[in-house]
Amino acid sequence: MKSLSKLEAIMWSVALPGFPQLLTGQFLKGALFVILEFVINVNSNFNQAIMYSFLWEIEKAFTVTNFQWLMFYPCLYMFSMWDAYRVTLKGKIKGTYLPFVFGAYFITVGLMLSPKIKLFGISLGPVFLPMLFLIPGLTVGYLLRLLLEKHFHHRETEIT
């Protein structure tokens, strides 16, 4: 079984959910993530939405997007990424899931709000706005993780 660094695990997950699992010999889990990514991607028309977004044809991106399917994507993406990251930690996983969970949550909220929110009068669409929502999601999750670690570390030192 090949081992990956934290950065390798995250970067392979960014490329395609399931790749790190396949690289580390977790073939069933990796295949499941790849298949789910493909099914969600195709049914949500996500690649078309990405293409139109990068061409700055935001209305076309909204038109082709199947939001019912696309709302599954952030959770799959972030869970696959956390799972790959978790394997690199070799047991030291307290609270590591929080930034990933909050990231998925905030991306999903950004996706739901994308038809309504405009920044400086410009709609960022179903791709760019959710991507922006990842930043506060990761920040909230990381800060919550730090607070919980501090709280539990403080309680452990009181007990001993």
Question: What does it look like?
Answer:
- The protein is mainly alpha-helical and 160 residues long.
- The chain has one domain.
- It has 9 helices and 2 strands; from the N terminus they run ααααααααββα.
- It has a two-stranded antiparallel sheet with strand order 1-2.
- Helix 4 (46-54) runs antiparallel to helix 5 (58-64) and helix 7 runs antiparallel to helix 8 (97-113).
- The protein is flat and about 45 Å long.
- The N and C termini lie far apart (39 Å).
Round the Cα radius of gyration to an integer and report it. 18 Å
**Class per helix and strand makeup:** mainly alpha
Share of residues in strands: under 5%
Number of domains: 1
What is the strand tally? Answer: 2
Q: In which range does the helix fraction lie? A: over 70%
Instruction: List low-pLDDT spans.
Output: none
Give the oligomeric state: single chain
Per the principal axes of the C-alpha atoms, what is the gross shape?
flat
Largest sheet: 2 strands, antiparallel
Order of strands, widest sheet = 1-2
Question: CA-to-CA gap between the ends?
Answer: 39 Å
Query: Can you write the helix and strand succession as a string?
Result: HHHHHHHHEEH
